[in-house]
Amino acid sequence: MPKTLAGIPALNAEQTIAKLIIHTMKWVDQVIVVDDGSTDDTSLIASKLGAEVITHKRNLGKGAALRDIIKYARAAGVVLVTLDADGQHNPDDIPNLLKPVLNDDADLVIASRLQENVPRGRRIGGRILDHSTSALTGGDTVDSQSGFRAYSQRALSEVGANEFGMGADAEILVKAKEAGLRIVQTPVTMRYENLKTSTHNPMYHWFDVFFSLVKFVSIRHPLLFYGGFSAIMFLIATVFGVQTLDYYSKYGRVVTNLALVSIATGILGFLSFFTGVILFTLITIVRDEQFR
Fold first, then answer.
1. What's phi and psi for 13, nearest 5 deg?
2. How far apart are CA 89 and CA 148, in angstroms?
3. Could you report the per-residue pLDDT of 127-153, keeping only the tens digit for each?
């Protein structure tokens, strides 16, 4: 039976980290806390309670903390479970997440939040992000923003967080789908009242994740992303161009606004198209070099 590790990304979590570590230690062999630039006593409390602590001198983002946790767990050859430091996750749910991985029934287990327990604003935004992520993966819709997850060693070898911010959870899920990992969900109840962290800023979280997904698509599928935008721009340019010519043929003069919109969108279309081609070429060269 492989050893188990709990990884906790933390930022200014001195009010919640002690209770979380104590309850988490009941279910795993080791706890690691990545203090992502805290200005309080998060690191001190975690180390005093026996957790392994990695400290970032400045705040780099949740993705950077997850990257360090995954790297550590991969090298240690353990099964990993990740929790947020704000107290929304119940450590007593850890066995339910670890069981499918330890039984070799899954590579990645996601704690799916019961939607009736999620504040309405977060629920709506979360659903949009969940469906956006599933559209990228071509799979079933899962709770893409849940940071409460369990990873097998196979999953740890396939995924990693390049995103520094809150988009890391979605990025990991997309990579897991692309790698053909077995992904399952288990329902849990989260606590949202009296949280002291970014759960008070759902709009910031939403935009961070959304633009991370946009960036991820633009890099992974540059022709589709930039080509699609280019097609839209060319369509708009054509519509306004036809209207400009039609008005000129009838009245003998050019409507400046229509003409400028047509020219501007046409230029954007060309720029987007060539950006997609250039980025696709560069990515292809890089991938070819990796396999030589």
1. -115, 30
2. 7
3. 555 555 555 555 554 667 788 999 999
